[in-house]
Design brief:
This protein is α/β, with parallel strands linked by helices. It has two domains: about 210 residues, Enolpyruvate transferase domain (UDP-n-acetylglucosamine1-carboxyvinyl-transferase, Chain, Alpha-beta prism); about 210 residues, Alpha-beta prism (UDP-n-acetylglucosamine1-carboxyvinyl-transferase, Chain). The chain contains 13 helices and 24 strands. Strands 3, 4, 5, 14 and 15 form a five-stranded mixed sheet that branches. It has a four-stranded mixed sheet with strand order 2-16-18-17. The protein has a four-stranded mixed sheet with strand order 6-7-9-8. Helix 1 packs parallel to helix 3 and helix 8 runs parallel beside helix 10. The longest helix is centred in the N-terminal third of the chain and has 13 residues. The structure holds shikimate-3-phosphate (S3P).
């Protein structure tokens, strides 16, 4: 539980948000299947990425983690060995789905389990194509829900057309494709985050892109690398919104990843009228990064839908908080994927923000928010979802009395020092 008080003198200062979660997971996994050592700097030591490390240690890989520095001693694909223990992914969908893609081509048996939230999330979006490639997978609900058992082996490439724009689905199939016969391609309805494609190339893999189709040839090996992880724009998003809505604020967020498949939040803030600037733009390991400067702004509501959705899907809880402070109506549509995140985020965002007095209604594929409104203090609940917990804490910064966030410990999944950062800006 955590109590957030109204911020009286603005949020001011500079912070360095933790490492990107998507990139941290991939750096460990790719290092684990690569030949040679991978060293990672700026790794996110959040619970999700620590679950990835624990799983690959159980798969026989030597990994040494010291805070944000990690060393992975890869011995190639065949360095992975049959685990004697169950692979526990905790709360992490990325660990589950990407690891299944890797296990699909390994000639041994594994069992994958996670927490109660993982146990509700659909896995057939990866287990079905991986079965089509030749992996033997079973589990509850015909292999859709954890616990899952997987026996990998000889697999063949497929041309897969995904109904959802999901980087986890795309990555899982491509990873299996790297050790399958022939070519494997994935076509998605809209472009999802492309960290897998970028990082595979950095590890020496040939990846081809043609519009919304990405393909790899089978029989490819990875070579260990030095990976510098940029700050996570999905974590920065909480402070971008806080900086825009808390009066008298001016925040500098250092070294944030601005990969165009992730910057929907910047586009939305600008569309709503926020004063936001990018500085010191550069590229690290094939990923663009910048410092982002945000100040308190007059905001207007806007429409958010279509192909921007995958570029800001994780930011919708805090965008809803932003919209409560914007003049007029904000409509979020085409975001059905929110229903299968760590919680059903249409339900949890709407129910928790209503407790603070927001004018917000759920729709089938998103939500409608009317602003501006003075939020009230109250007790809210993260429902065990890190991003709901943080979004509510940011709402607490502008509510007229304190907001108590129950189950705030979930925030450690992606941002262990979140509350320290809020305090450091006051
Ligand atoms: C992620 C992809 C997205 C995102 C998740 C991380 C990744 O999920 O919501 O937080 O690292 O590949 P989907 O692939 O389900 O869209």
């Amino acid at each position: 539980m955590n109590k957030v008080e109204k911020v009286t003198a603005g949020l001011n200062g500079t912070i360095k948000v933790p490492g990107d979660k998507s990139i941290s997971h991939r750096a460990v996994m790719f290092g684990a299947i690569a030949n040679g050592t991978t060293t990672i700097e700026g790794f996110l030591p959040g619970e999700d990425c620590l679950s990835t490390i624990a799983c690959f240690q159980k798969l026989g890989v030597h990994i040494d983690a010291q805070g944000d520095k990690v060393k992975v001693d890869g011995n190639g694909w065949s360095g992975l060995t049959e685990p004697t223990e169950i692979l526990d992914v905790g709360n992490s969908g990325t660990t589950t789905r990407l690891m299944l893609g890797i296990l699909a081509t390994r000639p041994f048996h594994s069992v994958v389990i996670g927490d109660a939230s993982i146990g509700k999330r659909p896995m057939s979006r990866v287990t079905n194509p991986l079965r089509e490639m030749g992996a033997l997978i079973d589990g509850r609900n015909n292999g859709n829900l954890t616990p899952l058992s997987i026996r990998g082996g000889t697999t063949r490439g497929i041309a897969y057309s995904s109904k959802v724009a999901s980087a986890q689905v795309k990555s899982s199939i491509l990873l299996a494709g790297l050790q399958s016969e022939g070519v494997t391609s994935v076509t998605e309805p809209e472009l999802s985050r492309d960290h897998t494609e970028r990082m595979l190339q950095a590890f020496g893999v040939e990846v081809e892109r043609d519009g919304l189709t990405v393909s790899v040839k089978g029989g490819q090996e990875l070579t260990g690398q030095h990976v510098i992880v940029p700050g996570d724009i999905s974590s920065a998003a909480f402070f971008l919104v806080a900086g825009a809505i808390v009066p008298n604020s001016h925040i500098v967020l250092k070294n944030v990843g601005i990969n165009p498949t992730r910057t929907g939040i910047i586009d939305v803030l600008r569309k709503m009228g926020a004063s936001l600037e990018l500085m010191n733009e550069k590229e690290t390991n094939g990923e663009p990064v910048a410092d982002i400067v945000i100040s308190t702004s007059e905001l207007k509501g806007c429409e958010i839908g279509g192909d921007i959705i995958p570029r800001l899907i994780d930011e919708i809880p805090v965008i809803a908080v932003l919209a409560t402070q914007a003049q007029g109506k904000t409509v979020i549509r085409d975001a059905e994927e929110l229903k299968v995140k760590e919680t059903n985020r249409i339900d949890t965002v709407v129910s928790e923000l209503k407790k603070l007095g927001a004018k917000i209604e759920a729709t089938d594929d998103g939500m409608v928010i009317e602003g501006p409104i003075q939020l009230n203090g109250n007790t809210v609940n993260s429902h065990g979802d890190h991003r709901i917990g943080m979004a509510m804490a940011i709402a607490g910064c502008i509510a007229n009395s304190s907001v108590t966030v129950e189950k705030s410990e979930a925030i450690a999944v992606s941002y262990p020092n979140f509350f320290e950062h809020i305090n450091s800006l006051q």
